């Protein structure tokens, strides 16, 4: 017997979503946040904290900070020379300083894997590099779930299905003075059993340094987005449009290695607001401890940075069945 399309819609919006409370809008799997352990550990406040390859998912505007990460300023070169740390000044830094605005090519690679509590797996992989005055990012985000119980038209168990949801990103970000702006064009694929859907969408975001120690992040996810039935004969809608999500955050940065971020989130299909709080403390230049809250659910983790290689881990409590999720991620800057 055929599975009713009503079951498919309910499942795609609830059971396959990264969070149960995402239900109410198609494409809810795009909003789980399972990309980059540092930002998961910090209470899902990535829209304001993100500054590396994972900006592709959290806020494309954050890609512009890679340009500053890759080179030392004139003041930093002078300080390292005075401190006798000449070995930390690379040929790349000298060339960038001498050539002014003509930056040499850099490359940031990253991958993240999350083992979710209720038999789900999520992953992200991407790369970013400078292009003219901005930064280009390319990435893919996927969430998988297997052995999902299906039901017939009469409500009786009717075997098991597999689910997958994927997003392909093409991002570009530029900076003007204290303001960074980024946009991501996205391609969607969603499949359950023998039914599948495809579509397209777009994200955009800003990051603004109001002061050297105060940063604001704004992200509109799925401002435009839809899925189109590809192999779903029972689907009644030719196009199923998403409802957007808006996230805003503010971060306070200090010279003592402490970052504190607070964010708010509004899904247009829901009446409630969500919030996140995160704190990072860099014990040394090599080790950062991270903790946070996301809608009263605790998260924590750490990040190790060695030779432009960032390895991170996050543990957070799952919002569906109150278990816990584990995330590991890697980012390398060349």
């Amino acid at each position: 017997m055929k599975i009713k399309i009503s079951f498919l819609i309910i499942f795609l919006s609830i059971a396959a979503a990264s969070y149960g409370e995402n239900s109410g809008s198609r494409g809810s799997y795009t909003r789980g946040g399972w990309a980059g352990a540092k930002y998961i550990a910090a209470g899902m406040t990535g829209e304001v904290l993100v500054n590396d390859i994972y900006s592709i998912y959290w806020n494309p505007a954050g890609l512009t900070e890679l340009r500053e990460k890759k080179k030392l300023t004139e003041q930093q070169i002078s300080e390292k020379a005075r401190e006798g740390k000449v070995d930390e000044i690379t040929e790349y830094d000298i060339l960038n300083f001498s050539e002014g605005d003509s930056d040499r090519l850099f490359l940031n690679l990253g991958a993240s894997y999350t083992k979710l509590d209720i038999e789900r797996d999520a992953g992200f992989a991407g790369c970013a590099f400078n292009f003219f005055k901005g930064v280009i990012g390319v990435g893919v985000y996927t969430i998988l779930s297997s052995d999902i119980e299906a039901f017939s038209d009469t409500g009786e168990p009717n075997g098991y299905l597999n689910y997958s949801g994927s997003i392909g990103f093409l991002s570009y970000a530029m900076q003007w003075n204290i303001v960074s702006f980024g946009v991501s064009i996205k391609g969607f694929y969603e499949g359950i059993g023998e039914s599948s859907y495809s579509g397209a969408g777009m994200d955009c975001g800003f990051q603004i340094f109001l002061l050297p120690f105060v940063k604001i992040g704004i992200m509109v996810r799925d401002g435009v987005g839809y899925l189109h039935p590809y192999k779903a004969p029972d689907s009644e809608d030719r196009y199923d449009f998403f409802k957007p999500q808006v996230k805003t955050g503010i971060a306070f940065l200090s010279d003592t290695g402490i970052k504190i971020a607070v964010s708010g989130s509004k899904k247009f299909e829901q009446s409630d607001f969500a919030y996140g709080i995160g704190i990072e403390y860099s014990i040394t230049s090599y080790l950062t401890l991270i903790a946070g809250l996301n809608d009263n659910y605790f998260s924590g983790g750490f990040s190790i940075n060695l030779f432009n290689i960032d390895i991170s881990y996050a543990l957070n409590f799952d919002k569906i069945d109150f278990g816990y999720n584990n995330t590991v991620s890697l980012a390398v800057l060349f």
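The mean pLDDT is 84. The chain has one domain: 5-70+106-333.
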